[in-house]
Amino acid sequence: MKITKAQSLANRAHIVETASELFRERGYDGVGVAELMAAAGFTQGGFYKHFGSKADLMAEAAANSLSHSLTSSEGLEVAEFIDLYVSRDHRDGRGSGCTMAALCGDAARQSDELKATFASGVESTLAALEEKYKARQDAPQDGVRAKMIDMLAHAIGAVMLSRACPDDSSLADEILKVCHAEIIASLPLSPVSQGADRGFEG
């Protein structure tokens, strides 16, 4: 039976969401098309009805999850964002966490198209952080972009470095604790929500 256009679009969106989670959990080379489609509840043959290649899906999944990262951080102060980002919950929730922290290393070895998708996501994240930072009257207004680049790179690096350690390693926690404290200390704002209970999605 032929499916409707609306159902086809819904199926495609579900595949993209599934791929986004699996790619973050296992990396781009860690999951194949057949396994991905099975996880989404479809046959491998249906893949090429929606995507020209796995690379096309990788780019779309990255754009989708990077967009979700911004949505999940809306309404947060910069310090609250860091509380969520540089945390054990985010570190352990690779599949539901930030795409940049999960896949930057993989993206560096991929196509220029995928790198451009990541660059766009980084730019959007920086713009959102800059806006939040500048909105505070007590925040210095000079050199904000450079400060946000430094802060974001520090936060992403902290999560990546912690994940490279065994899950039960005290070093994994130490990296997060030290980096969180250093980032917060570099801000003119006091952290509002140490250990916030909201998850970081994207």
Automatic annotation (TrEMBL):
Pfam families: TetR_N. The keyword Transcription applies. Keywords: DNA-binding, Transcription, Transcription regulation. It comes from the Bacteria. One of its GO terms (molecular function) is DNA binding. Transmembrane segments: none annotated. The keyword Transcription regulation applies. SUPFAM superfamilies: Homeodomain-like, Tetracyclin repressor-like, C-terminal domain. Residues 32-51 bind DNA. Residues 9-69 form the HTH tetR-type domain. This is TetR family transcriptional regulator.
